[in-house]
Amino acid sequence: MTQVTEKKTVQPKSRFRTKGIQALFGLLMGAMISSFVLREEVTITLTGVLFILLMAVISFIVTVMIHETGHAIGGKLGGMEVMNLSYGPLVYAKVNGKSRFFFKLPSLGYIGRAVMRFPEQVSDEAMRKKLLRMIYAGPVSNIITGGVALIIGYFIWPSGIILTFAMVSLFLGLTNLASIETPAGVMTDGKIISMLKEREPGAEVILVSHKLLQEDPTGAGHWKRETVERTEHIIRRYPDRPLAAFLLVTIGPYYYGSDPARFLELTDGRVFKNRTNKAVVLQDMIDTAAATGLYFAGKLCETDNIEEKLQLISDKNEVSGYMRDAYLAIVRGENSQALASLDQADRAIGEWHPLYLEGAIEKKVTQEIRNSLKINEDL
């Protein structure tokens, strides 16, 4: 099928406005800090500077918590439900319907995350509006709390600690409203807002991701056919957008057991690419999904240069690394090593994982491969 490539650009006026706002904020904060130091006759010492730096770190942690909680509240007001909330390595998640807490390192460069889903079906337009409310709620929470702290710390009850919190909170809120996407595919709230408001292409990727999550939060492949077809269309439409290609990982389970050949058609040109520093973890997961499709299609061992292709998968995500090792072992006829690697992948996912959540479908896939290998050993 013909692929349509859309440039991911921000309008020059929008970029100029964002830079202008950031520069103005920097000037205002600099002027306010200078006037505060002069007005309060603050003595600058090394101990004082170190103390303020410590307060800045603590303030950052608190503002991240406020930010993500703001997203959660905004989502709840729109009828969404919380799947998990991450405050750095501290994670609250729903596992098998029960509230659980975990200590997990952040993934994909996100310092905090609020993963929400729509429990009931909603139209695209209603979903867009509710998502905008949820996304805006994070940075707006920072701006409001930062603004209140600024008034208190500068005018009502002069305090360097409160003023530091205000600066950090305002900075986080305003920066998140800028439209930024990192090479790894990490997007600020402003980027998502810009896409949902159709100032930039890509709203379809966000909407269909939430549609898939609404229809089947476990990712086991229980989606409506029209939703899967829509996802296929979006994957083809945005060949250069990492998050669009990542939809391959999401919908893979729909095809593995029923039509792996069709899934492999979707992966054409999107997998086993030479690595750069861009989106390595996402690309590793996409390549692992492609290898899974090859396995279920019975084509893993006969694919040209498959060992070299599999070795492109890095260890940055340990689950992808273990799955790579399992497929390499299968290609080499080392079934016992493959079984050991599959066990390691399951253990790496554990009860909950920041990329795989409960990992129900991943564990189902590893079990099916495990059963297949054991049957082959018995023959």
From TrEMBL:
> Known InterPro entries for this protein?
Peptidase_M50 (IPR008915)
* Mode of membrane association: Multi-pass membrane protein
- Keywords recorded for this protein, A-Z: Membrane, Transmembrane, Transmembrane helix
Asked if the Swiss-Prot or TrEMBL record annotates the protein with the keyword Transmembrane, the reply is yes
Can the keyword Transmembrane helix be found in this entry's annotation? Answer: yes
Q: Which cell locations does it reside in?
A: Membrane
**Main localization (coarse):** membrane
Q: Which cofactor does it need?
A: Zn(2+)
> Which regions span the lipid bilayer?
21-38, 44-66, 135-156, 162-180
BP GO terms, sorted: proteolysis
Q: Where is the Peptidase M50 domain?
A: 56-157
Identify the GO cellular component terms for this protein.
membrane
Can you tell which superkingdom this protein's organism belongs to? Answer: Bacteria
What does the sequence similarity comment in the record state about its family?
Answer: Belongs to the peptidase M50B family.
Instruction: List the protein's name.
Output: Peptidase M50 domain-containing protein
